[in-house]
Q: What sequence folds into this?
């Protein structure tokens, strides 16, 4: 694997899932693979799970890790070409990325969208430039439009826990929030689930209020519902997540009552397991009773972030 | 050892002291003990000695270390149960602690008190929840009411340096400051010294102005004095420290002149050695002449933070 | 090597250059040298290249690294002696440096000048105190007046890439900027190039507008020019860098047009290679066409920061 920015970078999803679950059984089996190899983790935004799970994944593979909080420890980055840099930005992404590529064998990058200009965010200009100029393999730690390490961990969790006959019904369910959040996690989850549906692993439905439809570039193939209760009917997994509008870009639109998942809502499901990428706002996005109850998979799912990251890094190291 | 939050977590203080001094002689003797084990250090407040000494202690034991500045790199934490999270906090301690426990074998946590509500601070609610939800051994890097790694290093220092006949007289001496500081260090020192006094290792006195009495939960067993000169008479060790009032909680109360330790004050002692946990404000808490003079143990004592932390981590690793 | 703060700390420059280039060929040849040795990197200012290259250099030598962002993670430091610390500073450099020396075998320190008081900055008081009190070998990660790891990497780059007959002509060329920058990089480059000129390795010229002359303590021996085109004539290496005035200390003085390096300016050179320490402001200090063109050595030069740092750390470790 030369880069890991979306599901499209994965040649064999089955192999990646098997690798992740095998690493969970034997975390240190490949510890010589990363000897004298360095992972640089570059953060332009806060991170807890991604930072720690990716760092631990690299350590399990014998790599060294250098963490760079670009926004706090480094220099303000310019991303546009052709500008005279006489403003507040101190270093151009061309130099910054190229230099980090000189010291690291693999780079990880987290950069959230600004949610102001849809075209700019969805161009993934910053991420693409970082990859192009760094000249080393890059793993996304969440970009403007995707969070593939999260989605891989989500799919690992479903594969690992599903014990029913046939294919599970997976529902991505929009949830309320007070802030405008990126579409990165739901976009990414949608494209991974659509891919898994193509591979006959599951059935996938997205439920959201009017105006919150994701871009079809990510949701194509999913069943779309505007009725949460109908979507939840017979569900085996519910992936709860808020996102801001893609159509009316970055906005928090009015929405009807009844979009927070509660125990009562779960009654129509097939004893569904409840997932969330975390951090989660209790009793706003998801009721505390569900989070603390037997249906919740959120901590187990967060634990699988480690094995997802380790599987990706392993496959990258094997190609170095 | 399953957790290290106070002297009450230690079954055999003599063994812990011997371990610390043995590790000082042979720092790398147990380097295989921490192989493939990860220590997560979670900071909600600044740290110099604790951060570096604990990190180095873990490295000496062969562990990997991941440092998380929760206040700067992560998400604002909610600690109260039953609240709708529609405010400024982004993640609940229930999830955050549980997730960190997924990636780390041992966690360290630093969280200062707010000094606004005594009952809240002294409940150690945040710390207790962190331990309960993380489900891994937790070592305190200083909590609202205690700093046990500091106190252990202090006792190690006394044991290591005492060469007199009989038991040394140890005095905890309140000192002036311009800010309201927590009682964590003096509370913790007091309960460790009271325990050592029970074990017949030393005699312990606390000297402070009226209104600055510590909680009896920590000071029970100590001789209490309101006269610094009387307390210092015949002292072998003086532990200088400021703290805010426990009774008039978190307040800086007026105090009489003469509470800063100077060379002149030392004349009534038994050539006492002077200790302080650092950071220290020169010529406010403690005179520069004492700090730079032959009585000062402060750097030696800070150096012993390493062996205290390493002894604790060693005993935790042995129980994993 | 007991400290590395300037070219004067280096006994044998030829040996240091050879070590750097040998390490570039065999990065892990001395991995046992740093076993159980810890490097502490202390930052009072932002850093990208220095942080990552020095960290990686230490890892290549088998050392452990602890990074301390003193301004963000630690305590505000007092540097003056004889002051009553009743203000905003929390810890004195005497204690802070001594304590860090307890936990680390080698320390690195970055501390920029304030550019307010020339005498204070050029006394290197903070740096000298840090070294004196830490009592361990200290490597400068850039001080108020010098950046020797950068200058060593620059000389490595010239030695490595020069393939002409005889000695190359090296020109340090002042460039425009909108902010007042320290003289540390040009001071340091100048004293290293003057030393190399003494050793008959190259010819060295400094070109700057009136008022921007560096201190003769650093530039003595260099040819001085106020005419950029004349200085560039026949140049083999051009080192582009802005700095604020030394004479009118810390000020941005008016300067004539024509001090930004462009492809047109390069026509009078001997196909000169262009260097810059980075970060660089495009089309302000240096034209984008030069930076992105075949003359630019800036990324290669940044890559050599690793081998410069590793050579210095190697020689320090050999003396421990």
A:
């Amino acid at each position: 694997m030369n880069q890991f920015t979306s599901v499209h970078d994965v040649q064999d999803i089955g192999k990646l899932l098997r690798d992740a679950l095998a690493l969970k059984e034997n975390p240190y089996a490949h510890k010589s693979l990363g000897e004298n190899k360095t992972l640089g983790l570059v953060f332009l935004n806060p991170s807890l799970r991604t930072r720690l799970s990716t760092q631990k994944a690299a350590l399990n593979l014998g790599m060294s890790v250098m963490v760079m909080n670009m926004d706090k420890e480094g220099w303000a980055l310019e991303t546009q070409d052709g500008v005279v840099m006489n403003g507040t930005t101190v270093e151009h992404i061309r130099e910054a990325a190229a230099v980090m590529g000189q010291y690291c064998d693999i780079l990880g990058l987290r950069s959230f969208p600004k949610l102001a200009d849809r075209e700019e965010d969805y161009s993934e200009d910053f991420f693409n430039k970082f990859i192009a100029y760094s000249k080393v393999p890059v793993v996304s730690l969440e970009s403007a439009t995707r969070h593939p390490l999260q989605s891989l961990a989500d799919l690992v969790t479903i594969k690992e826990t599903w014990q029913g006959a046939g294919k599970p019904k997976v529902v991505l369910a929009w949830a309320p929030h007070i802030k405008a959040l990126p579409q990165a996690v739901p976009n990414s989850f949608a494209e991974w689930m659509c891919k898994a549906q193509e591979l006959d692993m599951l059935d996938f439905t997205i439920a959201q209020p009017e105006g919150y439809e994701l871009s079809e570039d990510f949701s194509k193939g999913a069943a779309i519902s505007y009725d949460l209760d109908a979507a939840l009917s017979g569900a085996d997994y519910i992936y709860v997540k808020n996102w801001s509008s893609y159509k009316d870009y970055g906005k928090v639109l009015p929405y009807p009552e009844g979009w927070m998942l509660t125990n009562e809502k779960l009654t129509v499901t097939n004893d569904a397991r409840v997932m969330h990428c975390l951090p989660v706002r209790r009793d706003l996005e998801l009721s505390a009773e569900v989070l603390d109850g037997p249906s919740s998979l959120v901590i187990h799912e967060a634990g699988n972030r480690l094995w997802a990251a380790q599987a990706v890094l392993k496959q990258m190291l094997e190609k170095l």
Observations:
- Residues 245 and 284 of chain C are 18 Å apart (CA to CA).
- The longest strand of chain C covers residues 38-43.
- The longest helix of chain C spans residues 298-319.
- DSSP finds 13 helices and twelve strands in chain C.
